Amino acid sequence: QVQLVESGGGLVQPGGSLRLSCAASGFTFSTYPMSWLRQPPGKGRDWVARMTTAGGRIDYADSVQGRFTVSRDDAKKTMYLQMNNLKPEDTAVYYCKTGWSPSTGYWGQGTQVTVSS
C-alpha cells in the first residue's frame, strides 16, 4: 500500500534551518508529482511547495519563496524540503502528499516543526 513517512522536524530558533524528508513506498514514486503542505496551530492546511516529475516545474507559496527549496531523489524514492531562515510563523505540522492538487492524493502522517527562541 501507499506509504509516505515524513521526518526531520523539530525545534529550531528563528533564522535556523531544517531539512525535511518524505520517504515513499508502495507506488512508482518517479511518476508522481509531489507536494509539501503545512498546518499551523489552529488553522487549516496550506500548500507550501510542489514539484512535477523530474522537477520539471516547481512552485512555492509566496510566504516561503526564496527560503525553502523542494527537491526529490527518485532513486531513493524520497522528497526533501530544505527550510532556511525559519520564522515563528513557519511553525506547523508539515505533510507530504502525492500529486499536484492540494485536494487529492495520499498523505503522510506529518512532522512537527516549531520555530521559537
Give structural notes:
The protein has 117 residues and is an all-beta fold. Helix content is 0%, strand content 47%. A hairpin with a 6-residue loop joins strand 5 (46-51) and strand 6 (58-60). The chain is globular, with a radius of gyration of 13 Å. The N and C termini lie far apart (40 Å).
Please tag this protein with its features.
single chain, 117 residues, mainly beta, six-stranded mixed β-sheet
Major sheet details: 6 strands, mixed
What is the number of beta strands? 10
- Specify the oligomeric state: single chain
Lateral strand order in the biggest sheet: 2-10-9-4-5-6
Indicate the structural class: mainly beta
**Counting H and I runs of at least 4 residues, what is the number of helices?**
0
**Helix proportion range:** under 10%
β content, as a range? Answer: over 45%
What form results from the Cα inertia axes? globular
- Stretches where pLDDT is under 50 for at least 5 consecutive residues are none
Compute the CA-based radius of gyration. 13 Å
Give the termini distance in whole angstroms: 40 Å
Average pLDDT confidence is 96
Query: What's the helix-strand series?
Result: EEEEEEEEEE
Topology:
Elements: E1 3-7, E2 10-12, E3 18-25, E4 34-39, E5 46-51, E6 58-60, E7 68-73, E8 78-83, E9 92-98, E10 111-115
TL;DR of this structure?
The protein has no helices and 10 strands.
